[in-house]
Amino acid sequence: MPHISSSLSTLQPAAVWAHFATLCRIPRPSKQEDALRLHLQQWAQGLGLATLVDAAGNLIIRKAATAGREGMPSLVLQGHLDMVCQKNSTSTHDFSRDAIAPVLQDGWVQAPDTTLGADNGMGVAMILALLADDSLAHGPIEALLTVDEEAGMGGAQGLAAGVLQGSLMLNLDTEEWGEFYLGCAGGLDVNVARNGVAQAIPSGHTAWRIALTGLRGGHSGVNIHEERGNAIKLLVRVLQALQGLGHLHVASLQGGSARNALPREAFATITLPADQGAALASALAQWQALLNHEFTGVEAGITLTAQATSVNQVMSEGDQAIWLRSLHAAPHGVRRMSQRVPGVVETSNNLGMVDLTPAQGECNFMVRSLLDSASQALADEIVSLWALSNTVAVKSGAYPGWTPNPESQLLSLCQQVYQREFHEASKVQVIHAGLECGIIAAKYPDMDIVSFGPTIRGAHAPGESVEVASVARTWQLFTAIVSAIGSPA
User: Fold this and answer.
1) Which three-class secondary structure state does DSSP give residue 54?
2) Do residues 195 and 293 share a domain?
3) Which residue spans within 54-196 are E strands per DSSP?
4) Structure pTM?
5) Mind listing the pLDDT tens digit for each residue in 153-210?
6) Alpha-carbon distance 465 to 419, whole Å?
7) H/E stretch holding 347
């Protein structure tokens, strides 16, 4: 049994939570999954299971069918090893070396100051627990544990056709118990970069560090329709207005730390004439009150502060104008709701990260859509905006959406099992977040795929939590479906 922290040791199903504790213990940022992959490969080999690491770095574990079920359909169980690494600015957590510290509170497991990694650690933990369970009758199983999902879906993109033997796939990477997912958005990134010309600080100027904090953040696909604040967009708006104080110069601007997370915090270093300190404090207080009023019911604690600091250089006036005006004009949020799937976002964009200095700057936009043509169109608009200032903007990392198949026989079976186990009907949904299912389906077009999972709140933001009761129900459903797939007619 894997090592388990005391906060999780009493939870059921014990095997699932024990494996999740292992995932909390071993750091797993995107592109840094090597240690975890090696640990899991050795663990699987210790159980006598066949393993393969493909050219993209994905781990594939194969378990033979139980006696008498060798002729049943081969089933792929899929999740991703990496996690989004977000923390509060007051946290000293180092995701490259420190373990996640889960806490049990009111029926939820959470990480108060960091992301928890329940996305997708809980799904992976269930797959591992099922691989180790010799009491369950099943057909042939392949576990596909991908890498780099959160930073561009590199593992799924690099998966070769013909590697997987299964004709059915269960993806365990969704976050609402009681719902089966049958489609998802595709998307791509737009990466913007521009070199600048640094200038000396004007004589008689004082430097200030402005912080805009207190936003909720969240998943840029799951939460984008909730109109949560974007710290980058809001701080740029404030900086635009502060130029009215006269002779404001920007030395730096940083915000956001993950392309697929709504920015919770943003920071700018500016200089102003030395006699403008009181006017700055007054303006920030007014802006704080205004923004909290605008976001009533959505954001509860937007905070704007300024502290004296020191800088050596500032941006040129031309570079400053290009960055502030372009970021101010750049799109963010829902572009269009779906007319095909009521209540689901069709197309959106997240201005997720910005990092500007006097010498250079860059920012990232993550575009999503249920329609590949619509994501390309919105990305082209963003590229066109930056082209007006001869700023380089490059589209990259495009991945396809997952087109729903209402005739899915696997979905029908899953719904039947759900009804039998819980005596109620399940729901079928399409999710605006990106899942690896679309990429895998493009390479394995005959594969029948369904996705489900436990209830997770606040994915991609500090305070991420997973509901304990939904984990137990998901495990019950998961094992029942796997058994039903491998059951002779």
Assistant:
1) coil
2) yes
3) 59-63, 75-80, 103-105, 108-110, 141-146, 168-171, 179-184, 186-195
4) 0.85
5) 999 999 999 999 999 999 999 999 999 999 999 999 999 999 999 999 999 999 999 9
6) 27
7) strand 345-356
Residue finishing a domain among 366, 399, 432: 399
Distance CA 141, CA 94 (A): 36
Kindly name the residue from 82, 179, 299, 464 that is annotated as catalytic. 82
Question: Is residue 119 among the annotated active site residues?
Answer: no
Length of the chain: 489
33, 142, 149, 319: the catalytic one is 149
Is residue 4 within 8 Å of residue 99, measured between CB atoms?
no
CB contact at 8 A, 109 and 35: no
Query: What digits encode the pLDDT tens for the residues 320-357?
Result: 999 999 999 999 999 999 988 888 999 999 999 999 99
Q: Which range marks the domain in which residue 159 is found? A: 14-185+401-485
Helices (H) and strands (E) in the chain, counts: 11, 23
Closest Cα partner for 387 from 317, 336, 329, 347?
Answer: 329
140 and 261 share one domain: no
pLDDT for the residue numbered 430:
93
34 Cα distance to chain centroid: 20
Task: Identify whether residues 239 and 337 lie together within a single domain.
Answer: yes
Tokens of 417: 């099992």
Placement of tokens 């995107």 in the chain = 30
Query: In this structure, is residue 92 part of a structural domain?
Result: yes
